[in-house]
Design a protein that fits this description.
By secondary structure, this protein is of the alpha+beta class. The chain folds into 2 domains: about 5-115 and about 285-315, 3-Layer(aba) Sandwich (Aminopeptidase), CATH 3.40.630; about 120-280, Aminopeptidase. About 35% of the residues lie in helices and about 25% in strands. The protein has helices spanning about 5-15, 25-30, 75-80, 100-105, 130-145, 155-170, 180-185, 225-230, 235-245, 270-275, 290-300; strands at about 35-40, 45-50, 55-60, 85-90, 110-120, 145-150, 195-200, 205-215, 215-225, 250-255, 280-290. The chain has an 11-stranded mixed beta sheet, sandwiched between helices. It is globular, with a radius of gyration of 20 Å. It starts with a helix and ends in an 18-residue tail after the last helix. Mean pLDDT is about 90; it is low at about 5-15.
Length: about 325
Amino acid sequence: MFDNREQLNSVKSILETTSGYLHPQYAASLAEFGVPRELPRSGGWILERSIPGTAFQDAMGCYPLFACHDWSQLAGDLEDLAEDLVSLSVVTDPFGEYDEALLKECFPDKVVPFKEHFYVDLEPPLEEYVESKHRRKARKALEQLHVEQCENAAAVREDWVRLYGHLIERHGITGIRAFSSTVFAGQFQVPGFVALRASCQDLTAGMALLYVQEPVAYYHLTAYSPLGYEMDASFALFWRVIEYCRGRGLKWLDLGAGAGMSADGQDGLTRFKRGWSTGTRSVYFCGRIFDRETYDQIVKSRGAQDTVYFPAYRSGEFA
């Protein structure tokens, strides 16, 4: 497989410094949604999926973001997929080293701005940019709640699954976003995983999950108990998350985007994240058709010619 020991050592070095969404274990954690496939030149991962009712396959990037080590090598990786897949869709890492020209080279069929991710520049003190209302709520919440990093993440995984169950029920979450306990079992073991827990008299009020890919930390998920909602645990957790990332010497914290597909910025999650952020970065939805004839045949057979969804034959899959 390897031509010499130098190549083997290079691969080992990359794995030792890889974490978070870049790590193969993160892709493996999503195996119930598709078969993980490495893109060896760029160092990214995708999930291959059978197209229902056909003998063909397509692929998607790992949820929620497609990340890779070397974006300049992605085009070569995608050329190698042409014989195996009908299409590929990804949502790009907001901190990836690419521009629109490179994305359009790799994904000639679809490159569109998808969402704006809020981020925090971790150099300034929190008091300089966090909204005054957020600061007040954080101070009040921290008077009642204790927030700490979970040194033994596996020990709190069941607690997290219970909290996430509240979130699923509260917001009617379905599909890939309704991560199963099996998915979380894998995600809690990915290098770079960090969990912070807010508690009151040792009762868990909420938890925040992060992935650290230096120099960036990515907010992954948060969930709260009914007590946590009453006590504004979200404000306590986000304050401590930012403090944790600053203490690690990281440069940025990606907070993700607002809720849903709307870009009007009026949903509560958008307003909440905006109050902590120092700026925004765009993520792009990208699509590529490798087998145009087969793609068109499947779309026609399903009467999906008029949808803007990509791939058109999967329209409504995450509704």
